[in-house]
Amino acid sequence: MTSFPPFRVLFSHEQILRRTQELARAITNATPGEPPMLVAVIEGARPFARLLQKFLPGGLPLHEVRASSYAGTQSTGQVTITIGKDLPVRGRHVLLLEDIVDTGRTIKALRQHFTVQGAKSVAVASLLSKPDRRVVEVPIEYLGFQIPDEFVIGCGMDLDGRFRELPDVVVYDPAVERAFVAGAAAN
Length: 187
Known about the structure:
Shape: globular
Oligomer: single chain
Protein backbone atom coordinates (compact mmCIF):
# COMPACT_ATOMS: atom_id res chain seq x y z
CA MET A 1 0.00 0.00 0.00
CA THR A 2 1.32 3.42 -0.97
CA SER A 3 1.54 5.93 1.83
CA PHE A 4 1.22 9.64 1.31
CA PRO A 5 2.24 12.70 3.30
CA PRO A 6 -0.40 13.71 5.86
CA PHE A 7 -1.80 16.61 3.82
CA ARG A 8 -4.85 18.48 5.15
CA VAL A 9 -8.04 16.89 3.79
CA LEU A 10 -10.57 19.31 2.30
CA PHE A 11 -13.04 16.67 1.09
CA SER A 12 -12.99 12.98 1.90
CA HIS A 13 -13.71 10.33 -0.68
CA GLU A 14 -17.07 9.72 1.03
CA GLN A 15 -18.01 13.41 0.73
CA ILE A 16 -17.02 13.36 -2.93
CA LEU A 17 -19.16 10.26 -3.57
CA ARG A 18 -22.21 11.80 -1.88
CA ARG A 19 -21.89 15.10 -3.73
CA THR A 20 -21.31 13.37 -7.08
CA GLN A 21 -24.54 11.37 -6.59
CA GLU A 22 -26.39 14.63 -5.91
CA LEU A 23 -24.95 16.18 -9.07
CA ALA A 24 -25.97 13.12 -11.11
CA ARG A 25 -29.56 13.47 -9.86
CA ALA A 26 -29.59 17.17 -10.79
CA ILE A 27 -28.19 16.44 -14.28
CA THR A 28 -30.71 13.63 -14.82
CA ASN A 29 -33.60 15.89 -13.77
CA ALA A 30 -32.39 18.71 -16.04
CA THR A 31 -31.95 16.48 -19.12
CA PRO A 32 -34.86 14.02 -19.09
CA GLY A 33 -35.46 13.60 -22.83
CA GLU A 34 -32.01 13.89 -24.31
CA PRO A 35 -29.04 12.81 -22.19
CA PRO A 36 -25.91 14.88 -22.68
CA MET A 37 -22.68 13.84 -24.34
CA LEU A 38 -20.18 13.46 -21.50
CA VAL A 39 -16.77 15.00 -22.24
CA ALA A 40 -14.12 14.76 -19.53
CA VAL A 41 -11.22 17.18 -19.48
CA ILE A 42 -8.30 14.80 -18.93
CA GLU A 43 -6.18 13.89 -17.10
CA GLY A 44 -7.52 15.51 -13.93
CA ALA A 45 -11.26 15.09 -14.42
CA ARG A 46 -11.11 11.38 -15.25
CA PRO A 47 -11.87 10.07 -11.69
CA PHE A 48 -14.72 12.55 -11.14
CA ALA A 49 -16.09 11.85 -14.64
CA ARG A 50 -16.10 8.09 -14.07
CA LEU A 51 -17.89 8.52 -10.75
CA LEU A 52 -20.49 10.78 -12.30
CA GLN A 53 -20.90 8.45 -15.27
CA LYS A 54 -21.57 5.57 -12.87
CA PHE A 55 -24.38 7.50 -11.15
CA LEU A 56 -26.05 8.69 -14.38
CA PRO A 57 -28.69 6.41 -15.94
CA GLY A 58 -28.39 4.88 -19.37
CA GLY A 59 -24.74 3.85 -19.50
CA LEU A 60 -23.64 7.04 -21.25
CA PRO A 61 -20.26 6.78 -22.96
CA LEU A 62 -17.46 8.99 -21.69
CA HIS A 63 -15.49 10.99 -24.24
CA GLU A 64 -12.28 12.80 -23.44
CA VAL A 65 -10.62 16.04 -24.39
CA ARG A 66 -7.20 17.20 -23.32
CA ALA A 67 -6.92 20.89 -22.62
CA SER A 68 -4.33 22.43 -20.38
CA SER A 69 -3.12 25.78 -19.15
CA TYR A 70 -0.93 24.66 -16.22
CA ALA A 71 2.76 24.04 -15.64
CA GLY A 72 3.44 22.96 -12.06
CA THR A 73 1.26 25.01 -9.69
CA GLN A 74 0.88 28.02 -12.02
CA SER A 75 -1.40 28.78 -14.96
CA THR A 76 0.44 29.69 -18.14
CA GLY A 77 -2.48 31.82 -19.32
CA GLN A 78 -2.68 29.89 -22.61
CA VAL A 79 -5.13 27.04 -23.25
CA THR A 80 -4.04 24.25 -25.55
CA ILE A 81 -6.52 21.62 -26.80
CA THR A 82 -4.55 18.60 -28.01
CA ILE A 83 -6.90 15.59 -27.94
CA GLY A 84 -10.63 15.34 -28.63
CA LYS A 85 -10.87 18.39 -30.87
CA ASP A 86 -12.93 16.46 -33.40
CA LEU A 87 -15.57 14.86 -31.16
CA PRO A 88 -18.96 14.47 -32.90
CA VAL A 89 -20.76 17.23 -30.94
CA ARG A 90 -22.86 18.73 -33.76
CA GLY A 91 -26.50 18.86 -32.65
CA ARG A 92 -25.70 17.39 -29.22
CA HIS A 93 -25.97 18.70 -25.68
CA VAL A 94 -22.42 18.55 -24.31
CA LEU A 95 -21.62 18.25 -20.62
CA LEU A 96 -18.00 19.16 -19.92
CA LEU A 97 -16.67 17.36 -16.85
CA GLU A 98 -13.87 19.15 -15.07
CA ASP A 99 -11.89 18.49 -11.90
CA ILE A 100 -11.48 22.16 -10.99
CA VAL A 101 -12.42 25.48 -12.52
CA ASP A 102 -9.65 27.83 -11.52
CA THR A 103 -8.90 30.75 -13.84
CA GLY A 104 -11.85 29.86 -16.10
CA ARG A 105 -9.73 29.99 -19.24
CA THR A 106 -9.90 26.27 -20.04
CA ILE A 107 -13.68 26.05 -19.66
CA LYS A 108 -14.20 29.22 -21.70
CA ALA A 109 -11.97 27.88 -24.50
CA LEU A 110 -13.70 24.47 -24.52
CA ARG A 111 -17.18 26.00 -24.44
CA GLN A 112 -16.29 28.19 -27.42
CA HIS A 113 -14.64 25.30 -29.25
CA PHE A 114 -17.64 22.97 -28.96
CA THR A 115 -20.14 25.74 -29.70
CA VAL A 116 -18.26 26.52 -32.92
CA GLN A 117 -18.29 22.77 -33.69
CA GLY A 118 -22.12 22.88 -33.61
CA ALA A 119 -23.05 21.66 -30.12
CA LYS A 120 -26.68 22.45 -29.22
CA SER A 121 -25.54 23.49 -25.76
CA VAL A 122 -22.45 23.22 -23.59
CA ALA A 123 -22.82 22.93 -19.81
CA VAL A 124 -20.17 22.34 -17.14
CA ALA A 125 -20.05 19.94 -14.20
CA SER A 126 -17.00 20.49 -12.02
CA LEU A 127 -15.94 18.80 -8.83
CA LEU A 128 -14.34 22.02 -7.58
CA SER A 129 -14.38 25.75 -8.21
CA LYS A 130 -11.79 28.23 -7.01
CA PRO A 131 -13.46 31.61 -7.63
CA ASP A 132 -10.66 33.66 -6.02
CA ARG A 133 -8.42 32.71 -8.96
CA ARG A 134 -10.98 33.46 -11.67
CA VAL A 135 -9.64 35.53 -14.54
CA VAL A 136 -12.55 34.76 -16.87
CA GLU A 137 -16.05 34.44 -15.42
CA VAL A 138 -17.68 31.23 -16.59
CA PRO A 139 -20.90 29.58 -15.49
CA ILE A 140 -20.68 26.21 -13.76
CA GLU A 141 -24.07 24.58 -14.02
CA TYR A 142 -23.26 21.64 -11.72
CA LEU A 143 -20.75 22.30 -8.96
CA GLY A 144 -19.44 19.89 -6.37
CA PHE A 145 -17.62 22.21 -3.96
CA GLN A 146 -16.25 25.73 -3.85
CA ILE A 147 -12.77 26.04 -2.35
CA PRO A 148 -10.42 28.82 -1.21
CA ASP A 149 -7.30 29.78 -3.13
CA GLU A 150 -5.18 26.79 -2.13
CA PHE A 151 -3.40 24.33 -4.39
CA VAL A 152 -5.23 21.01 -4.13
CA ILE A 153 -4.33 17.50 -5.25
CA GLY A 154 -6.01 14.10 -5.21
CA CYS A 155 -9.11 12.67 -6.87
CA GLY A 156 -7.38 13.13 -10.23
CA MET A 157 -5.68 16.46 -9.52
CA ASP A 158 -1.92 16.39 -9.49
CA LEU A 159 1.32 18.21 -9.03
CA ASP A 160 3.41 17.45 -12.12
CA GLY A 161 1.80 14.00 -12.44
CA ARG A 162 2.07 13.07 -8.76
CA PHE A 163 -0.71 12.47 -6.21
CA ARG A 164 -3.58 11.92 -8.71
CA GLU A 165 -4.39 8.60 -7.05
CA LEU A 166 -5.16 10.11 -3.63
CA PRO A 167 -8.84 9.30 -2.96
CA ASP A 168 -9.46 12.56 -1.06
CA VAL A 169 -9.05 16.18 -2.15
CA VAL A 170 -6.19 17.55 -0.04
CA VAL A 171 -4.23 20.79 0.21
CA TYR A 172 -0.70 20.40 -1.11
CA ASP A 173 1.91 21.66 1.33
CA PRO A 174 5.57 21.32 0.30
CA ALA A 175 6.72 21.52 3.95
CA VAL A 176 4.51 18.55 4.86
CA GLU A 177 5.89 16.60 1.91
CA ARG A 178 9.53 17.43 2.81
CA ALA A 179 8.99 16.35 6.44
CA PHE A 180 7.31 13.13 5.29
CA VAL A 181 10.15 12.30 2.89
CA ALA A 182 12.80 13.12 5.51
CA GLY A 183 11.02 10.91 8.06
CA ALA A 184 10.73 8.05 5.59
CA ALA A 185 14.43 8.35 4.70
CA ALA A 186 15.39 8.26 8.39
CA ASN A 187 13.50 4.98 8.95
